[in-house]
């Protein structure tokens, strides 16, 4: 060690000077007395500090208050108010069509700025088929009721178990609408309040719709034109669109069960191609054309299941 250098004492039991900025035991006790007062019991240090300052009093910094609370295991939740509960999104699993539907409303631009039409749309979770849609000028529970009744009738599933998932919009939570679902034997399911991604399949559908090349971003000239365009889109989406999540079959093919034979035939074609020219494949296997067996809406993670007490 060069002359003049200072070597840090690395002995574990060496006595070290107390930091000059460390609070005293009296100040620590005063912090605990303050945070446990009735008037401060429900407040965090960010609010306690300025209130003390308004009284002309300073005990310690905000970070010191937090440190003392943390050391005393008092930081997580204080006071008599109920501890906030973490909401777990409702989880549903579809293994066939017409077990779980998701629905939502999106706005379509009208002929002038500020005027919008509303597209109501129901999507089957398993097949991604649009099983019902309507376009109206406003959001009303009566329109939602009409939509669901028509979809149930068209799919011929009255009395069969069905979950209908949506966000928390007023048409979705209306008493008359919920009454209809109960009458039809449909279980209602809702996204968590102020959570935007608990209804991802409906949101993805609307994103596909609005990114179509022919979508009129300047707005629809009339309600009739909006309905005409929506009809053409749904026909394309259901009958023509090869959906990537369905291993590139159409939603209708998945919904009516034809997808299994279609995918099986694709698998045969690929296996034959490999047998004919194995040198082009090497050790690689052919593309997997297996059909999907289930689709989960907001699947529960293992850590969430443990935390919620589920096994």
Write up what this structure looks like.
The protein has 11 helices and 7 strands. With 311 residues, it is α/β, with parallel strands linked by helices. The strands form 2 sheets. It has a 5-stranded mixed beta sheet with strand order 4-3-2-5-6. Strands 1-7 form a two-stranded antiparallel sheet. The longest helix is centred in the C-terminal third of the chain and has 18 residues, at 259-276. The protein is extended and about 80 Å long. It starts with 24 loop residues before the first helix and ends with a helix.
Q: Find the structural class using helix and strand composition.
A: alpha/beta
Instruction: Identify the CATH homologous superfamily of the domain at 92-241.
Output: Ribonuclease H-like superfamily/Ribonuclease H
Number of helices: 11
Biggest sheet features: 5 strands, mixed
Strand arrangement within the widest β-sheet reads 4-3-2-5-6
Unreliable stretches (pLDDT < 50, length at least 5) are: 301-311
**β-strand amount:** 5-15%
What is the CATH topology classification name of the domain at 92-241? Nucleotidyltransferase, domain 5
Average pLDDT score: 84
* CATH class category of the domain at 92-241: Alpha Beta
Radius of gyration: 31 Å
Terminal-residue CA separation: 62 Å
H and E order = HHHEEEEHEHHEHHHHEH
The counted number of beta strands is 7
CATH architecture of the domain at 92-241: 2-Layer Sandwich
Helix content: 25-40%
Q: Shape from CA axes?
A: extended
């Amino acid at each position: 060690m060069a002359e003049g250098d200072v070597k840090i004492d690395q002995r574990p039991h060496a006595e070290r000077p107390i930091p000059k900025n460390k609070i005293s035991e009296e100040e620590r006790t005063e912090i605990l007395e303050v945070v446990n007062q009735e008037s401060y019991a429900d407040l965090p240090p960010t609010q306690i500090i300025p209130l003390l300052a308004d009284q002309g009093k300073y005990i310690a910094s905000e970070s010191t208050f937090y440190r003392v609370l943390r050391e005393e295991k008092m930081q997580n939740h204080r006071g008599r108010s109920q501890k906030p509960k973490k909401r777990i999104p409702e989880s549903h699993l579809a293994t066939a069509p017409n077990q779980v539907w998701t629905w939502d409303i999106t706005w379509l631009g009208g002929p002038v700025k500020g005027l919008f039409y509303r597209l109501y749309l129901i999507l089957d979770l398993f097949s991604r088929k649009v099983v019902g849609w309507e376009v109206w000028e406003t959001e009303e529970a009566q329109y939602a009721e009409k939509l669901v009744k028509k979809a149930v009738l068209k799919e011929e599933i009255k009395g069969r178990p069905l979950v209908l998932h949506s966000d928390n919009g007023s048409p979705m939570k209306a008493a008359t609408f919920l009454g209809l679902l109960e009458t039809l034997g449909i279980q209602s399911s809702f996204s968590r309040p102020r959570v935007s991604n608990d209804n991802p399949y409906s949101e993805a559908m609307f994103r596909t719709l609005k990114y179509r090349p022919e979508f009129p971003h300047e707005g629809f000239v009339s309600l009739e034109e909006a309905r005409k365009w929506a009809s053409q889109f749904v026909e394309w989406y259901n009958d023509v669109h090869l959906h990537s999540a369905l291993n590139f079959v159409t939603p209708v093919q998945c919904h009516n069960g034809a997808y299994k034979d279609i995918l099986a035939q694709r698998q045969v074609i690929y296996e034959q191609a490999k047998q004919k020219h194995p040198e082009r494949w090497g050790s690689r296997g052919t593309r997997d054309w297996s059909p999907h067996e289930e689709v989960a809406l907001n699947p529960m993670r293992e850590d969430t299941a443990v935390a919620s007490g589920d096994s």
